[in-house]
Amino acid sequence: MKRILVALALLCVEHSIHTATAQTASREQVAGTVSSVTASANQFVLKTDKGESIAVSTTDKTVILHLAPGVTDASKATRMTLGDLQNGDRLVAYYRGTPGDKTITATTLAVRTTADIGAINQAELADWKKRGIAGNVTAVDAAAKTITIKSGARPVTITTTDKTEFHRYSPDSAKAADAKPSDFAGVKVGDQVRVLGNKSADGSSDTAESIYAGEFRQLAATVVSVNAANGEMQVKDLATKKPLTIRMDSDSTLKKLDPQMAAMLARRYGAARGGQGAGSGRGEGRGQGGEGRSAGEGRGPGDGRGGRGGGGDIGGMIDRSPTIQLAELKPGDAVLILTTMGSDPSRVTCVQLLAGVDPILTAAPNSTRDLLGGWNLGGGGGGEGQQ
User: Residue 25: pLDDT band by 50, 70, 90 thresholds?
Assistant: First the structure.
């Protein structure tokens, strides 16, 4: 999401730059990230958000403007030189030519540096932690343009407006940067959502500014094999009894409950269900696992999970549990996993994994959704480490 926001922020200066430089209507523009700079040749390579590489040349007439965080007025920008550009800087290049040109000569560059992006990311993450909420969609009212979610143990009514921005997570990623623009109709019952907005005093409603929605898989499984070198493991989905490849990435979170906490949660969930499933063994961990339903800045808009918006003490307890490495998991271990849906359903990416859950699955095989629902995607809209 941060990449999108930064690009939009840069595009907001277009009108003032047009005025400041008195360009004609034939001017084109392209946004992207600087991938290499050759200042001696007055050139750099711009990687667009579509993944294309464009060779950009500058002249002594090219205006290079640095737009600090919060600045959208070109008259308030400061001048830069080509030598000031660094790999990772975000910019919009204005030029005379044809859309899609792979070699251009820039007339104006509007730049956000990597330091600017970092500051914007931190401010955005703090906002999501303060005003973000996450949960599972339980109802959608198209006529009223409202969405009801379960956030922790309570329902929250999300009101949308014409200004609400909608995004849909990729089937292979829980990162906001990989999400695509969407609309109200794109939100479905069963989705997991992250919402940025203004909550009511009692927390029962929220007016949304930005919504990230997507379908995630919640499953109970046993570990079959672990390949820590490749960042993968094979598991057996206890609901479908089918094998599944789980891929880890830099944003995957792996936690392990200590035995005392696991026993306490087993008693809680077992009692809540009248002991249902007691003695069934972890091999019967079915219920919500494997249904292909969702589990919620997120880390997202990013990462730095937080602001789960009502995940209750369960989410907090899990967050405080020790982080483990993939290599610490062994064949036969029982785990609860929140994953992407996957373009290939047999190979998915781990969003969150919770180990040490054997007593819970024995006492309450259907507890997957309750546990992972309390420990959701978090509080920032979209995803950690985004640029």
Answer: very low
